[in-house]
Amino acid sequence: MEFVIIAFGLFLSYALIGIISTVFGIGKPKNLPPGPTPLPIIGNLHLLGDHPHQSLANLAKIYGPVMFLKLGRTTALVISSAAAAKEVLQKQDLAFSSRHIPDALNAHNHSHYSAVWLPVSTQWRTLRKILNTNIFTGNSLDTNQHLRRKKVQELVAYCRKAGLCKDPVDIGRAAFRTTLNLLSNTIFSIDLTDPYEDSGKEFRELVGNIMVEAGKPNLVDFFPLLKKIDPQGIKRRMTHYFGKIFEIFEGLIEERLVMNRSKHEDVLDLCLKISQENPDEFNRAHIKSLFLDLFAAGTDTTSNSLEWAMTEVLRNPHIMTKAKHELEEVIGKGKIVEESDILNLPYLWCIVKETLRIHPPVPLLIPRKIHSEVKLNGFIVPKGTQVLVNVWAIGRDSTTWDDSLMFKPERFLTSSLDVQGRDFELIPFGAGRRICPGLPLAIRMVPVMLGTLINCFDWNIDAGRRDKNIDMSEKFGITLQKANPLCVVPIPLD
Fold it and tell me: Least enclosed by CB within 10 Å: which of 90, 389, 405, 462?
């Protein structure tokens, strides 16, 4: 009780200082970017709502693509155009390369060991080197192509079994299970879930909960005085989720050490070898956080992208027809798509790019933070400001895209825009030195899984709903999930 009284008193003092500063403009920097007038104490927090990416996109229509917000005791810069994103992610990449770390990500000290959250440093470069030179290189991915083919075959077998029983398939869950086992085989040389049964629910829920909690607006991040109280319980829940996943990883690491790493040449062996050679730079905590980064980013983003793509194709029968025709012409009806086929399937690839445009896996890129005052587009951005790049808004910018809210894969048939961080109109994986290292895997897996599901099955909407009534509501987190899963009945074509 005494702690609560003291904390409440400190909070009131903090609030009084905030009111005085707001009213009299004490300490207010000159030439800030435009933005909505903040309220005392809370600033602009009330404007975020349950879907901040949408709220911020609407505010940007009023205040412009470089927008300044006051969020409690913190400040935020919101970037909502391709030109402004290029300035931040390419031209001034180094100045904007540090991370704003949500308090929840400090659970189990994860932010101290994670390649996602560490600042640009020797430690960060070591982790990125492991990812870029040993896991996501072209050679490494080519070596494991047989493994990805096997996992797609298992996905087809699962869907065929469901179809014969006329059971609906939860597309997101099936894609998650496929990607989970792909990554677990790449890292540990084992399946973490049965590929032929509807299992793996607990792990998916853990990963999904982590992504939702990490992206959820947290009062602690806007009012640091509240850290010890954790009023929303977000860090408490994250501590539980991290603990459960780290426990799984710890067991697999211990099992491998007992086996003396003799029969595997997977990512775990590689990490244990690097840790043995450089224990100060890369220890057990780094290994577990690296695996969490890989599973959280790799499984959730890929499965969400596939689910959104299937949703859009099912909502638009003419797109399904075109995709089926292309697949039949190029590889033959009912066959599994190979990675080597993708270059010969331009319309399928257009569907994937259009999905990533209108449903980016990460609607607000992982937040950045500037450690010294920066000049941007003639404005002054104060030290300590967090930076949010609204990829969701950029992908729906009507000044860039014709019919920006319509799902039109054809727009990419005559466009050279790609998703690899060079074209800032389309940056679903980010850009610059902080670009998502898993991009090379994602752009192989999503079109192969999507093309295979389209080519091997017809699909009936579950519960007899019409295509136009498929639910499109979003569930906001670090990643953009469907609020309600896509459940459809596969009809095997053979």
Answer: 405
